[in-house]
Amino acid sequence: MSNSTQHLGDVKLPTAGLSGNFINGEWSKPIGGKTLDVINPCRLDTITSVGAADARDIDAAVAAAKAAFPKWRRRAARERGAMLIEFGNRITAHAEEIARLLAAETGNALRTQSRPEVASTAEVLRYYGGVIAEQKGETLPLGPGLFSYTTREPFGVVGAIIPWNSPLVLAAVKIGMSLGTGNTLVLKPAEDAPLAVIRIAELAADIFPPGVFNVVTGEGLAAGAPLSQHADVAKVSFTGSHEVGQKVAHAVADRIGHLTLELGGKSPCIVYPDVAGDTQLDTTVNNIIAAMRFARQGQSCTAGSRLFIHETVWAKVMPRLVEKVNALKVGDALDETSDIGAVINAERYTAVCGFIKEAIDAGAKVETGKLPPSTADAKGYFPTPVIFSGVDNTWRVAKEEVFGPVLVAIPWKDEAQVLAMANDTHYGLAAYVFTNDINAAMRATEALDAGWIQVNRAGGQIPGMSYGGAKQSGIGAEYSIEGALESYTSRKSVTYGI
Ligand code: NAD
Fold first, then answer.
1. What is the pTM of this model?
2. CATH dotted code for 5-263+472-495
3. Would you say domain 268-462 falls under CATH 1.20.1250.20?
């Protein structure tokens, strides 16, 4: 791998932020002096390196956040909100620069993924900036001689840990909810994609009072674990894998802390028999592709990766689906013509290839796609979108989160049976239903165990909607004012005798 960044063209790197630690309003290098390389997964080049923090840096960041909390919690909610709006506006003003950086580090295509993610990031911050003044309590009619009311109190220091697949928008959700509600924050981005988060932290450096918003870059075990275990972190908000989520939950339980978990999914996509006319078939196929998040290499927690097609429309849906998926262009994330970029790193690429090979060896029918080159032969971690049929719902490829562009299609004829298959997973994050039959849609949405069900739509989250997983996909909800109040504040009851 080369250390040259000239191949990145007009991608502008963060400056002060490369040191890694933004603590108490100042950028600094980690105490241990360690760094970690950030790799462009399309070009297998080192983009740059950033600080790699350890427990000592986490201690310093948490101490700064703790010291800043008493004043911050007393600021009027609308003042905190105004700062979030200013933050969102600055991101919009630098949108293209941030999107290019995001595409370079994540491998998420600039046109289809990275630009829209930057726009959503600004939108989330402005949303919380606007609604956070609704941090209201209740008055209680407890009877004569009593006056009782509640207030919504922040917890203190929030530790937020995020993954690499959509790092900016996830950072914005944690920032908006925690700072808006009067908590202070220590945010740890993922080691594979810290640069765009660092860049927006640079833009925020003079918005929030020192210590209110802190960022610490580093690896999971060295930096994430001490943050989740820290006695002065009142709440942890974690988005990531089921395995790490379990460890974080244990650490938080040891001190009876507060916790939000946004974990993985294996979401079903159900096509009903009435989806038959040409226009509706076309729209549904576009939605199936969007639900599978093919354009993000399938690296989405809400990916609709199990496709159940009614047997009477299978022969109409499948050829169109294959044709449209084959038309997607896989290529460099910074190339305007690319629809799909690269898988984040060698480990994930190897795991995705492992799922594909195992399914082929077990006799799955390949409707489209193929096993990509081995990690050693790959010139970039470019996947090939794959659609399998001839797979049973119990196979590993149909049960586990591949987190790659691999879709499993299964025909169905009995509604009760397909709904049972759809629910036959420990996950419960998202689900997609395609039908014009209102009764079928209502039966399906009632029966499906999922935190978010979309009917005849397959887009991303929109600020204002509560989003969170059922079953083992998570605990708590984010993206909404209700989620922020439920997950980032506690009720204080005050009762007066009159
Ligand atoms: P991951 O769990 O490996 O890493 C997530 C974060 O946790 C990273 O910042 C990492 O450094 C940190 N970490 C790793 N080990 C840790 C430890 N022992 N203690 C504390 N922190 C630690 O996940 P990933 O591979 O980066 O992301 C993919 C996963 O995230 C998928 O399972 C996906 O479904 C999930 N995800 C969920 C949502 C959601 O909203 N539900 C959104 C995006 C991604």
1. 0.97
2. 3.40.605.10
3. no
